[in-house]
Design a protein that fits this description.
The protein is α/β, with parallel strands linked by helices. It has 19 helices and 14 strands. Helix 11 packs antiparallel against helix 13. It is elongated, with a radius of gyration of 34 Å.
Length: 609
């Protein structure tokens, strides 16, 4: 069961709250429709329930607020808008990535594709899906964790009748298995057809809380729509003849003086009356009128009684008396029990989304689920091979620069630029296509997610660095012969420098994109190292060195409890030399600043694992 109590949007000066003290229930085993015209506060109510907007009130999902649920994806499935996935990702890849985030087996993706009728379209890109297929994929995303409660915002909007019928059939099937379903709609006919419980709101306040039968009887009535230049005279004639025949007929004049709505009559009777009195008719049609509050199409503007909720756990089954309009409290005031005083409902704080339960698997599927990663790697390797051939042709470029394909005209070699771009996309795509934030708030600043991204981006950067050197060496051997390529004496130091450069660029792009929430910031941070930081360090006055660091690894070994192999000494000394280089120093300083900035912004948001 879902219980929303006292939902109230945050108040802003001079603006009425979108939701004002809204209280209702959605029972288990029942489809509940939240009905209201555009701008009535339906979406804001859902966002308050999911703790995506600040305000007041509380929502219980089977007795627990959402922030108390250990695994929200296994309790609540959410569909807000379209699928927030990368348009180049396949439907199956999107679901498998979300499986890693929800902590469920990847095989569930194929199961749900078959359930929602997309078994044959698993390899189709999200950007090419039709609105109906997109909505099916969004529903599959909401069902990944096998949740008890489904919350959907206008799920049938823009769908053809056949697709809408299929969607509502899926929702009824979920409710028949004991689940809770709550969806919003602005179409009363849709609510009457598909929901067993209808909650009507207007201007953010509760108007009616009814079961489906009562809603259809009190809100939807058959009528005859009449349009005539003599509407007032025709209305008087129809009313007079109905009284003479002792029939219950109700005639309502619409806002437009030429239109009538006649309840309790038929097109034939009204047409005959108009013909007998010589009145022209411009429109005569049977309709189903919605007498919703604020609409002038019907004579009744009230309501307010709630019938029993369908499904177990409802107030009616518990023996509670149904609520009436008089039971709705004043805005912003909640009963305080025996204290006799009024108190406001508890505040709702915007909470960041939880990170993925399997962050490394999630990050790998996110990275390799689109062609962009492969394209960047291929371009970097081809550019490295081409530049190494051009540099080797002159014969004046040192061999390490030739293998790294790093001419003096470029701020960074292609492999380092590619690693930095992949790192920037690692967080940039999270904010551009927030798969983690589908109905769960902003992209989370979780240390676990950050460490997974750092580890995966470092691995990809090292692989790219190795492939770039191999591609350059193979192209040199193929074009100029094997005599040109030889292993230098300081290969270990060069390997450490090359690895540190590519990994540092990847991390710089990743951290900057995570701080500023855009890929461009990550790329700018990568380019700022050679363009700004290196010249700044080189411009600093040189300090003469009075002491030497020789013997540092041996002294470091003496301070340690464990004795490591002597080979580690060479690596430690190589790392020190890398950091002492202007580019290494600039990259180290940049990473230190970015790490501090990321941690500062994360701690402000109460970062967690």
């Amino acid at each position: 069961m879902l219980q929303a109590i006292g939902l109230t949007s945050a108040r802003h000066r001079g603006v009425l709250p979108a939701v004002d003290d809204l209280t209702f229930e959605a029972g288990s085993g029942c489809v509940t429709a939240l009905l209201g015209p555009p701008g009535s506060g339906k979406t804001s109510a859902l966002r308050l329930m999911l703790e995506l907007e600040p305000g007041r009130g509380i929502t219980y999902f089977r007795g627990r607020p959402l922030h108390r649920v250990a695994h929200p994806a296994r309790e609540v499935g959410v569909l807000l808008g379209d699928v927030p996935g990368h348009p180049a990702r396949t439907a199956r890849g999107q679901l498998r990535m979300l499986c890693a985030a929800a902590g469920v087996p990847a095989s569930r993706a194929d199961t749900l594709l078959d359930t929602v009728g997309l078994a044959g379209l698993g390899d189709q890109r999200i950007g090419t899906l039709s609105p109906g297929m997109d909505r099916r994929l969004a529903l599959a995303s909401a069902l990944l964790g096998d949740p008890h409660t489904l919350i959907l915002d206008e799920p049938a909007e823009g769908l053809a009748a056949r697709e809408a019928d299929w969607l509502h059939g899926m929702l009824r099937s979920h409710a028949d298995q004991g689940g809770t379903v709550l969806y919003t709609t602005q179409d009363p006919k849709e609510a009457a057809r598909s929901a067993g419980h209808v909650v009507t709101i207007d201007t953010g306040r509760l108007v009616a809380d009814q079961d489906g039968v009562d809603f259809s009887r009190t809100r939807l009535r058959p009528r005859v729509a009449v349009r005539s230049p003599h509407a007032a005279r025709l209305a008087a004639i129809v009313s007079r003849e109905a009284r003479a025949a002792r029939r219950s007929v109700e005639v309502v004049t619409e806002a437009s003086s030429s239109r009538l709505s006649v309840y309790g009559s038929s097109c034939a009777e009204i047409g005959d009356a108009a013909f007998r009195h010589g009145l022209p008719i411009h429109q005569l049609a049977d309709e189903v009128g919605d007498t919703k509050p604020g609409d002038s199409s019907g004579p009744v503007r009230s309501v307010a009684t709630s019938g029993s909720l369908c499904g177990p756990g409802s107030a009616a089954e518990a023996g509670a008396a149904p609520a009436t309009a008089a039971d709705v409290p004043e805005p912003g005031v909640r009963p305080a029990g025996n204290s006799g005083a009024a108190q406001l409902p508890p505040p709702i704080r915007r909470r960041p989304a939880r990170g993925p339960l399997r962050p490394v698997r999630y990050e790998l599927r996110r990275l390799f689920g689109v062609r962009t990663t492969t394209l960047i790697v291929v371009v970097a390797l081809v550019a490295s091979a081409a530049l190494s051939l051009l540099l080797a042709r002159s014969g004046r470029t040192p061999l390490p620069n030739v293998l790294a394909a790093w001419p003096s005209l470029l701020p960074l070699p292609p492999a380092a630029l590619g690693a930095g771009l992949l790192g920037a996309l690692s967080f940039g795509d999270e904010f551009r296509y927030p798969a983690l934030a589908a109905g769960r708030g902003t992209v989370p600043r979780r240390i676990g997610l950050l460490l997974a991204k750092l580890a995966v981006s470092a691995g990809v950067a090292l692989l790219l660095a190795l492939l770039a050197v191999l591609a350059s060496a193979e192209s040199l051997r193929l074009v100029y012969g094997g005599d040109l390529v030889r292993v230098p004496s300081n290969a270990m130091s060069l390997a450490a420098s090359w690895s540190g450069l590519t990994v540092g660029c990847a991390w710089a792009g990743l951290l900057a994109a995570g701080i500023f929430r855009v890929t461009t910031a990550g790329v700018a941070a990568v380019l700022a190292v050679p363009v700004l930081m290196v010249p700044l360090i080189q411009a600093m006055p040189k300090v003469p060195t009075a002491r030497s660091m020789s013997g540092f690894p041996g002294r470091l070994r003496g301070l340690a409890w464990l004795q490591w192999p002597h080979e580690v000494d060479r690596w430690a000394l190589a790392a020190v030399r890398v950091v002492a280089h202007p580019v290494g120093t600039a990259l180290t300083l940049s990473l230190s600043v970015l790490v501090c900035a990321y941690l500062f912004t994360s701690l402000r948001g109460r970062v967690r694992w």
